[in-house]
Amino acid sequence: MVFRLWLLLVLVLQLEQVSCENYTYSFTAKEIKAYKQEVRELFYFGFDSYLEHGYPFDEVKPISCVPKKRNFKDPNDRVTNDLLGNFTITLIDSLTTIAVLQDRPRFLEAVKLVERTFPDEDFDVDATVQVFETTIRVIGSLLSSHQYATDLTKAVYLGNEYDGSLLRLARNMADRLLPAYLTYTGLPVPRLNVKQKFNFPDFTDSLLAENNVAAMACPVFEFTILSYLTGDSKYEKVTRYAFDKTWSLRTHLDLLPMSFHPEKLTPYTPMTGVGASIDSFFEYALKGAVLFDDSDLMDIWDVAYESLRTSCKNDWFFANIMADTGQLFVPWIDSLSAFFPGLQVLAGDLDDAIAKHLMFLKIWNTFGGIPERWNFSPPESLSSSPSEDLESFDLNAIIPLEWYPLRPEFFESTYYLYRATKDPFYLNIGVHLLRDLKQRFKSNCGFAGFQNIITGELQDRMETFVLSESLKYLYLLFDEDNELHKSASDVIFSTEAHPMWLSQEVRSNYKRKAKFSDLTYSSHLEACYERDKELEAKENTLRGRIVGFAKSIFTQDEPDETPTDAILNHKINDKVPSICPMKPSHVMDGDSWYSPILSKFRRLFEIDTRYAATLIKPAHMQNYSAIELEPAFYSRWSNPQFSTCQIMATTEIFELIFDLPGLHQLNPLISDNETITFETFGGRSRLNIERIQIYQIDHYGELITASTFRNISRRDIYSQQCDTTASLYSPTFLYRVVAINGHTLPRHGTVHIKEHNFVSASNNTRKKDVLIIGSVGINDRAQLMIECTPIINLILV
Ligand SMILES: *[C@@H]1O[C@H](CO)[C@@H](O)[C@H](O)[C@H]1NC(C)=O
Ligand SMILES: *[C@@H]1O[C@H](CO)[C@@H](O)[C@H](O)[C@H]1NC(C)=O
Ligand SMILES: *[C@@H]1O[C@H](CO)[C@@H](O)[C@H](O)[C@H]1NC(C)=O
Ligand SMILES: *[C@@H]1O[C@H](CO)[C@@H](O)[C@H](O)[C@H]1NC(C)=O
Ligand SMILES: *[C@@H]1O[C@H](CO)[C@@H](O)[C@H](O)[C@H]1NC(C)=O
Ligand SMILES: *[C@@H]1O[C@H](CO)[C@@H](O)[C@H](O)[C@H]1NC(C)=O
């Protein structure tokens, strides 16, 4: 099962890049090579600037060309000190990018510099740092670099010029961080002082107060790799306990609140989503499942992803919702969640990944980066018509957090999508990201992201992920022939983009010979398991059984009841409200080259319309054209023969939520004939229902015709609730399911729910008791009805 995911990527790697030199704008092998070379130069510009102006401190300030140091004077300066432990962290975190560039001389040089910087192979610094960040940036990079240095098949293999120093350093750091787990609950505290080796750290209240899900769960990935490479299983066992324990704190909807008090286990916030504080939890459930061939982690991923899809998938993004009710909690998404489409590619959910990634492209087009937070639903007073009064419009209302420090997540998911689709669309995005890096963000001594995306003011800071992630993914996008793309064993990127793999030999050695001999940690874990047993007896969650709320999530303007001729003839012309922008004119010569997403994806411009109220360009972006509309690219890659332009929908979509006792089916059967079948229908289910009328344009961009309205019955077979005398009637509107639990239906798709299960889900054997659920009924066509209006494609079978 695990390898179903990887298959997709492996297959696409075999495809040849075909060149097409004759077009004015196309991606030839030569061009791609030139882009790759440019990224390489940009990386070395940043890295060498650090070496010259930042080393031996943690970072270099890209504008002022001085080191950015840990603030030893003010221990409470957490923004600086959480990350910067005086570990030369830019040097360490960048090692694997040099390895990805396959530059052996520079890799050897950098490894030797690390060795000279830490002659005692010891991170003996009096510094309190974040456990999670230090794990992913320091330990992760050291482990990956060690793998590179010792793997005969890699270009940067160092042979006898390397003696394992990086692995020893990684272990030294891990031993310094592991005491964070010696809490009553076994969940780590967020920060600790790395100098206090093996002594139970002197935790103060403020250090203990809050830890997020990603930080509590995720070190398991790096620590498990460390266990494989050292044969000491304590790193895996201690962190794996915390991972599983964290998952056990989920609500009855299988959603995890984003942060907890690590000692009391009480949630700090009811909010959940896929962004900051929880992002890497999903990432490492899936990536750990693949790298460690671990079916328990895969089960966690399957459940976690399904519940996300069911509860928080809001069409173009995953919204931030309440973990206990599934209701929308805050109307914004954050920058970090841009990684999620990449993860969906790994999970094999390519269609949804393509859609979700597009949202971030539109954000990039608008703001020139991905703001830390973007509000998709501005306050009422602002939403009326902001474009008429741009000057006075307050962008702060739609950008609650206005910085963009060149985070890598959008680069990352663009890379994954290109590997999976080979659509030049994604290369074109890469070309523009490269151009932006050169023209907008390249500074005196490195890359400066936005301090304020609204004003365009830059930030005198270059976080380590710029060199270790953003530029690495961009390079790999253009490097078809990279050894990672041809590797025999699965290569998994850590959350900090450090490539990880495990040889068969390492795996079997670990399985046979792993030891756990550290008494401190073994007795600690025993005590944790003991307490869990006591708790288990008390566990009990009650489930609701009533239909949830139905609320409109997307309302268009009043539909036009009288269709124009154009609509009736079903032709698209200027009179029809369309959501396609004016496409650049272009000439095609019959060649079949084109970008599938540009030509075939009907909803390419839907976001521009739907979120027009909050996708507003700041002044400094006025001249920036949408990446997907760049004329030369567009005319080269879009094929008018296949191009479709979606007409704007005039229907309305709302949500219907069921919360029923009984089993929730994780993976409903999706058959070729466009039927989704649910054997059981317990737990939380969320349906997106479209209310349709004759002559409206539906959500699929199609005209709704009278034939849909023929032969409709509302005769309720289990009660007298609806009008039974006139069982056939001509309704003015009907309902139709367009998505169920995050699975979108094609236009003629049908949902089948095994009736028996639906009925017994409401804990009754007599059929008529279905009506327990508020205003829901079933007609003699076996269609579910809400308030006596049939949902025409929801059939109880
Ligand atoms: C490209 O141009 C050359 C010279 O004009 C021509 O011989 C060749 O057939 C063209 N190739 C394609 C793919 O159109
Ligand atoms: C921080 O690192 C610098 C450079 O290696 C070193 O000179 C300094 O002593 C370190 N400071 C502390 C408090 O460890
Ligand atoms: C946009 O382009 C116009 C015309 O070339 C120029 O006058 C203006 O200064 C530009 N604005 C920005 C923000 O670059
Ligand atoms: C579609 O497939 C499902 C499951 O295989 C089957 O129950 C149903 O009858 C099929 N529907 C049509 C219209 O063929
Ligand atoms: C109307 O629907 C019923 C039940 O699905 C079916 O038996 C009947 O043939 C339909 N009549 C027409 C005219 O389509
Ligand atoms: C379901 O029915 C059983 C037997 O009548 C009853 O004991 C149980 O409490 C019911 N469960 C719910 C959730 O109503």
From TrEMBL:
Record-annotated active site: 133 (proton donor), 279, 372 (proton donor), 409
Cofactor(s) essential for the protein: Ca(2+)
Alphabetized UniProt keyword annotations: Calcium, Endoplasmic reticulum, Glycoprotein, Glycosidase, Hydrolase, Metal-binding
EC number: 3.2.1.-
Cellular compartments annotated: Endoplasmic reticulum
Primary localization class, coarse: endoplasmic reticulum
Lineage top rank: taxon: Eukaryota
Protein's name in the database: alpha-1,2-Mannosidase
Taxonomic source organism: Saccharomyces kudriavzevii (strain ATCC MYA-4449 / AS 2.2408 / CBS 8840 / NBRC 1802 / NCYC 2889) (Yeast)
Encoding gene (name): YHR204W
